[in-house]
Amino acid sequence: MDSNIIRFENPQYLYWLLIIPVLVAIYVLIRLWNKKQFERFASVKLRNFLVPMFSSARANTKFVIFNLIIALLIIGAANLQSGSKMEKVKREGIDIFLCVDISNSMLAEDIAPNRLERSKQAIYKLISKLGGDRIGVVVFAGNAYVQLPITTDYSAAKMFLSTINPSLIPAQGTEIGRAIDLAVKSFGEDEHNKAIVIISDGEDHENGDAVKAAQEAAKHGIKIYTIGMGLDSGAPIPVYNKYGKNIGYKKDKEGNTIITKLDDNILRQIAEIGDGLYVRASNSNVGLDKIYDDINKTEKSEIEANVFTDYDDQFQWFVGAAIILLIIEILLSSGKRKWESKFKFFEPKDENNI
């Protein structure tokens, strides 16, 4: 069976693209500063007379090409790949849905670096250990939705995992019941053994819904495991501005700093109903390995899945384009050549152009 899919082998390198707007800002500031310094010496209108070989448009063009080269090399390092061959593969495994709490309280830093990031690190490590199991991710706060449908594509799972943050669900809360219901529905009708793992600080104000959802899941033979994220001492909830800078901590109506603590009563109850385990996380160990070891004791079903078994690298196209642009950039000197003065390739339309 032939098909096609596009993915990056090393998507983490794409974060380096953020350096480009920083370079643009620095470049603009330098050009404005140079213009200001020149104006202290002479009028801008005299520039062409004093420096006849200078070309603002050429310098800007070289800078644009330079940024394109950086972008192409970064994309090349990330290694865009196209799936060229898909096959049906049979393997033994268990269907696992991870339900991750992304409410603001999960940003508390009593478990370093914070509860949510530590959870993501543990899940990433778990994904790297998976063999034949299928995995899906549900995120929840005041609502719940499927972040990753059940799959054996572990590379896609890691990529989706990196995007999880509290902004995905604006409505605050800890609706564990909705997360369980959604996970049960998202498993589908397959007769595979199934397990749900809930990672949360347990601050659910609708405990009755969570218990009912767990009971319904248990009727379908789905095991439920829970992990409590947080310490007895608790921690304040950081507040960040749109630039990601910590601007303080969440406060109540009286202006007091809110301390969020682990509430594991409902998590213990759910795990007991679901015939699973409850594990309390610490700074040294989240406990996901212990839960996976217990899940592995469950009899595994034969799973048939369509998976890509061969990928074609496409990085060479981006590196090749970067080399061509580099040659062009080298050929473009910063100033005008005498023979070019007959033409107006890089003449600015506005003589006040920076």
Main traits of this protein?
354 residues; alpha/beta; Rossmann fold; 3-stranded antiparallel β-sheet; 10 helices; flat; disordered C terminus
- Uncertain stretches of 5 or more adjacent residues: 348-354
So, the CATH homologous superfamily of the largest domain? von Willebrand factor, type A domain
Question: What is the number of beta strands?
Answer: 13
Share of helix among residues?
A: 25-40%
Biggest β-sheet description? 6 strands, mixed
Q: Rough shape?
A: flat
- Number of discrete helical segments: 10
Q: How large is the radius of gyration?
A: 28 Å
Number of individual domains:
2
Which structural class matches the secondary elements? Answer: alpha/beta
Question: Average pLDDT across residues?
Answer: 84
Strand order of the largest sheet: 5-4-3-6-7-12
CATH architecture of the largest domain: 3-Layer(aba) Sandwich
Any idea of the CATH class of the largest domain? Alpha Beta
Word description of this protein:
This protein is of the alpha/beta class and 354 residues long. It has 2 domains: 5-79 and 314-342, no CATH class; 93-307, Rossmann fold. The chain contains 10 helices and 13 strands. It has a 6-stranded mixed beta sheet, with helices on both faces. A 3-stranded antiparallel beta sheet has the order 1-2-13, with helices on one face. It is flat. It starts with a strand and ends in a 23-residue tail after the last helix. The relative contact order is 0.18.
